[in-house]
């Protein structure tokens, strides 16, 4: 799929100096009063809250991979960070009355960055699971998808989850698909992301890989790769949300922003831009 960022909601980033401003604001917010954006948009935060720090700084710091098309990746023509998740979180930031600053990292270190306060929220198609909700708070879902298994083209012995037992797959170590694959009896090799998994699959070093159907369909359409194909769809219906630190008041603020974006049609518009249909609910 050709990358088509929403024209009226361009991705905006700030220089690294903004990170210092945000860090200073965190200290100020811890002892200062609540803050509302100048134009009256967004939520009014309580003193010492994460939302207050974000609004005082004027920046929502976002962790993302930047290599996961069509959700978070660099446009080949402009090298600009773009994608569905990038557009949605940028629109959320606008609702909060702040700008957005992206920090790119690998999937397996993305939660560590959140815990180290390098960013306020993750926007990277993070599936909402029991294990994760025990450690982090999540916004309401902004994507609903299913799982698929990808195999070399012409594979005939992998057509259902039962056939995965004893096979070798490649998954990001901390992804929910790694758990699904292991539970199905597969030997799981750790990779940094979907692109590396596909490379191993085409090299014949693994038998299959699990991933989100939206990511796989976009990959097949945008690359025209005929060396791999979807073997079957899993029974998993997966909801993705924006994770924040446990107890952060950013989660309800992001929910309010998503509700507004859903009500005015913006969320459906962004979704349709990238997928041709509304996958946000």
Quick tags:
single chain; alpha/beta; four-stranded antiparallel beta sheet; three-stranded parallel beta sheet; 10 helices; disordered N terminus
Query: Which strand order do you get reading across the main beta sheet?
Result: 7-13-9-12
Q: How many DSSP H or I helices?
A: 10
Average pLDDT, rounded to a whole number, is: 85
Question: Order of SSEs, N→C?
Answer: HHEEEEHEHEEHEEEHEHEHEEHH
Distance between the termini: 21 Å
| Secondary-structure class | alpha/beta
Beta-strand proportion: 15-25%
Low-confidence stretches: 1-47
Given the C-alpha coordinates, what overall shape results? Answer: globular
Helix content: 25-40%
Radius of gyration: 19 Å
The biggest beta sheet reads: 4 strands, antiparallel
- The number of strands is 14
Structure, described:
There is one protein chain. The protein is of the alpha/beta class and 281 residues long. It has helices at 17-31, 50-57, 84-96, 110-115, 130-133, 176-183, 194-202, 213-223, 250-263, 266-275; strands at 59-64, 67-68, 72-74, 81-82, 99-104, 121-122, 126-127, 136-138, 143-152, 168-172, 187-191, 209-212, 228-241, 243-245. It has a 4-stranded antiparallel beta sheet, sandwiched between helices. Strand 3 and strand 4 form a beta hairpin. Helix 1 (17-31) crosses helix 2 (50-57) and helix 3 packs antiparallel against helix 10. The protein is globular, with a radius of gyration of 19 Å. 47% of the residues are buried.
Give a topology summary.
Blueprint (H helix, E strand, L loop, with lengths): L16 H15 L18 H8 L1 E6 L2 E2 L3 E3 L6 E2 L1 H13 L2 E6 L5 H6 L5 E2 L3 E2 L2 H4 L2 E3 L4 E10 L15 E5 L3 H8 L3 E5 L2 H9 L6 E4 H11 L4 E14 L1 E3 L4 H14 L2 H10 L6
Parallel strand pairs: 1-5, 1-6, 10-11
Antiparallel strand pairs: 2-3, 3-4, 7-13, 8-14, 9-12, 9-13
């Amino acid at each position: 799929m050709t990358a088509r960022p929403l024209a009226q909601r361009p991705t905006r980033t700030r220089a690294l100096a903004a990170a210092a401003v945000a860090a200073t604001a965190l200290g100020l917010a811890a002892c200062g009063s609540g803050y509302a954006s100048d134009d009256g948009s967004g939520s009014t935060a309580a003193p010492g809250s994460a939302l207050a720090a974000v609004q005082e700084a004027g920046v929502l710091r976002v962790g993302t991979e930047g290599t996961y098309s069509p959700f978070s990746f660099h446009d080949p023509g402009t090298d600009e960070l773009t994608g569905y998740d990038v557009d949605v979180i940028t629109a959320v930031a606008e609702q909060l009355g702040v700008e957005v600053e992206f920090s790119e990292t690998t999937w397996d270190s993305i939660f560590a960055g959140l815990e180290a306060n390098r960013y306020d929220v993750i926007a990277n198609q993070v599936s909402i699971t029991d294990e994760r909700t025990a450690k982090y708070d999540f916004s309401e879902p902004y994507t609903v998808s299913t799982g698929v298994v990808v195999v070399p083209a012409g594979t005939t012995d992998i057509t259902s989850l039962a056939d995965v037992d004893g096979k070798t797959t490649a998954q990001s170590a901390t992804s929910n698909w790694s758990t699904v694959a292991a539970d199905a009896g597969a030997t799981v090799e750790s990779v940094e992301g979907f692109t590396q998994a596909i490379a191993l699959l085409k090299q014949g070093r693994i038998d299959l890989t699990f991933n989100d159907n939206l990511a796989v369909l976009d990959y097949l359409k945008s690359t025209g790769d005929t060396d791999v194909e979807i073997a079957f769809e899993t029974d998993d219906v997966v909801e993705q949300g924006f994770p924040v630190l446990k107890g952060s008041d950013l989660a309800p603020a992001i929910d309010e922003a998503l509700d507004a974006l859903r009500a005015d049609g913006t969320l459906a518009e962004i979704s349709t831009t990238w997928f041709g249909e509304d996958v946000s609910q």
